[in-house]
Design goal:
- The complex is a heterodimer.
- Chain A is mainly alpha-helical.
- Chain A has 13 helices and no strands.
- Chain B is mainly α.
- Chain B folds into three domains: 1-81, Up-down Bundle (Four Helix Bundle (Hemerythrin (Met), subunit A)); 89-122; 125-166.
- In chain B, 69% of the residues lie in helices and 0% in strands.
- The chains are: A mainly alpha, B mainly alpha.
- The A-B interface holds A 85, 115-117, 120-121, 123-125, 127-128, 130-131, 134-135, 138, 146, 149-150, 153-154, 156-157, 160, 177, 310 and B 28, 32, 35, 51-52, 55-56, 58-59, 62-64, 67-68, 70-71, 74-75, 127-132, 177.
Chain lengths: 341, 204
């Protein structure tokens, strides 16, 4: 490494950061590919089917076959579509899904950018994801895509508020916006019980469910809503352009699961005080939350649009506001068991 | 040196985007250029080490306000020719307002109250300096009354805006989830025992 450092001179920090970015993005892409397989397998078993099992041993090469198929297909730009924005929309949807990973701490040492305002950064970057959907819906020049885009815009803006309030609770617990600090503060003698999900249980649920809604996953997938508006905002997309929307959706799922694990489930901390901490715990927690995502999709019917709005505005926001006051008051009393707050 | 280059690149993008906001014919394009202008402005603030302001700009303006803007603008059916009507009539008052704004900005920017002498460039802070914590501390101690007052004014504005535009249609149908949950079986179902119309003959 020192040899390269001397060889590249002043360009070394930039090159080294690029290497680190690649080291995060490549495994992420692999994970996205195999998450699609896991989804089909898990839902298959839940519906007493086998799922894909023809390509490779036990269907393990299925994602590669899918990727090759999508790569070789033609990207069709509909007549009357706004060409630049039509091509730009998938980029806008994958950019936030990847950029947010910069501040995620994988272990005490392993984080790309250990910035102080990490939580705010994540909130700001993920709030830009909605543009991909809106621009795609508008630029396609199709009424189904347009309706999907509008639905998605309203839904994501509504659930972002509940999500933000849930994160205020995390902020009060850890007194820091730095994600590494947030994980460190959850360390305590109680193991899994000293993580944020116990004192912030209502917020944990609100965050998890809002996360499902933010990523447009079933049962909140009205932006796609096959039975009503064909495939929603990406109905006109084909080939690689479609694949990028797909990638973004799954990368966002993994991102929300990771954030959930970092902020409420203790990140890399082990559930029992006598076990060593480390990255495998984070991976296990992320896998668990991802499994919940798949389970929801297999179990629940799609919400009706007005019910989604009611849940977001009339249930989640009041719940988080009340719990903020409860937590704030509880912290001031001597009966606060989670250490110096 | 590097920062200066970044500043000029961002400033050029910002100016270009701002000009396109007013010159773009398509209102959706104009809105998207405004988003670009906000994003680059937030980059400039980041250069000034105002990280909280920069991130709050992206979070609030790009992530929420402009999404709703776009939402409304996309559904408008804007007729460009109608907009062009009366261009020359509006030109004179428009120029007057523009001149006034330039003069106002000149008073602030050129005057003695806003120069490098009175407002020195921010000195680089150590890595553990939290901009967010500082703003929070000042906002909730020194300026707490002004801050709360502004919040109440905004709340009143929101309530007023909703109260002015809320129209209840008499014939609109809606569900009351509380009543739906409270329903029991005996409220909806009545089990009646009816005599069979035909007796089944056993021997067939």
């Amino acid at each position: 490494m020192e040899f390269f450092e001397q060889l590249l001179g002043p360009a070394w920090p930039a090159v080294w950061t690029l290497v680190k970015i690649v080291a995060i993005v490549l495994p992420l892409m692999g994970m996205v590919a195999y998450l699609t397989l896991a989804e089909r397998k898990v839902i298959g078993y839940m519906q007493v089917r086998l799922g894909p099992n023809r390509v490779g041993p036990k269907g393990l090469l299925q994602p590669i076959a899918d990727a090759l198929k999508l790569l070789t297909k033609e990207v069709i730009i509909p007549s009357g579509a706004n060409k630049f924005l039509f091509v730009f929309a998938p980029v806008m949807s994958i950019m936030p899904a990847l950029a947010a990973w910069a501040v995620i701490p994988f272990s005490p040492e392993l984080v790309l950018a250990d910035i102080d305002a990490g939580l705010l950064y994540v909130l700001a970057i993920t709030s830009m994801g909605v543009y991909g959907v809106i621009i795609a819906g508008w630029a396609s020049n199709s009424k189904y895509a347009f309706l999907g885009g509008l639905r998605s815009a309203a839904q994501i803006v509504s659930y972002e508020i509940a999500m933000g309030f849930a994160l205020v609770g995390v902020l009060m617990m850890s007194r820091s916006l730095n994600l590494s600090d947030i994980v460190q503060r959850q360390a305590g003698g109680l193991g899994a019980l000293s993580w944020n999900w116990v004192p912030l249980f209502p917020m944990f649920l609100v965050y998890l469910i809002s996360g499902v809604a933010e990523t447009n996953r079933a049962p909140f997938d009205v932006a796609e809503g096959e039975s009503e508006i064909v495939a929603g905002f990406h109905v006109e997309y084909s080939g690689m352009a479609f694949a990028i929307f797909f990638l973004a959706e799954y990368a966002n799922m993994i991102l929300v699961s990771t954030l959930c694990a970092v902020m409420f489930l203790g990140g890399w901390l082990s559930p029992a005080p006598f076990l060593p901490d480390g990255f495998p715990w984070l991976a296990a927690k992320v896998a668990f939350v991802l499994f919940l995502f798949l389970w929801f999709r297999a179990t629940f019917p799609r919400y009706r649009y007005d019910q989604i709005m009611r849940l977001g505005w009339k249930v989640f926001i009041p719940v988080t506001l009340v719990w903020l006051i409860v937590i704030g008051a509880w912290m001031q009393t001597p009966w606060w068991p989670w250490g110096q707050a | 040196m590097f920062q200066t280059v970044v500043f000029y690149v961002f400033a050029a993008i910002l100016l270009f985007a701002a000009v396109r906001v007013v010159t773009a014919r398509n209102p959706v394009h104009a809105t998207l250029f405004l988003v670009l202008a906000f994003a680059t402005a937030s980059g400039l603030w980041m250069l000034l080490e105002a990280e909280f302001l920069a991130i709050a700009m992206v979070l609030v303006y790009i992530g929420a306000v402009m999404v709703l803007f776009l939402f409304v603008v996309m559904m408008l059916d804007v007729n460009i020719d109608r907009l062009r009507e009366g261009y020359w009539d509006y030109l004179a008052p428009g120029l007057a307002i523009a001149g006034m704004m330039v003069a106002e900005m000149a008073v602030v920017l050129v005057g003695r109250k806003f120069g490098l002498l009175t407002m020195p460039a921010p000195s680089p802070k150590p890595a553990d300096y939290s901009n967010t914590r500082e703003i929070g501390a000042v906002l909730y101690t020194q300026y707490v009354y002004a801050f709360e007052l502004a919040a109440v004014v905004l709340l009143v504005a929101i309530v007023a805006a909703i109260a002015l535009t809320l129209r209840r249609r008499k014939d609109s149908k809606f569900q009351d989830p509380a009543r739906q949950v409270a329903v029991r079986k005996q409220d909806r179902i009545r089990i009646v025992s009816m005599p069979a119309e035909k007796t089944v003959s056993r021997d067939s």
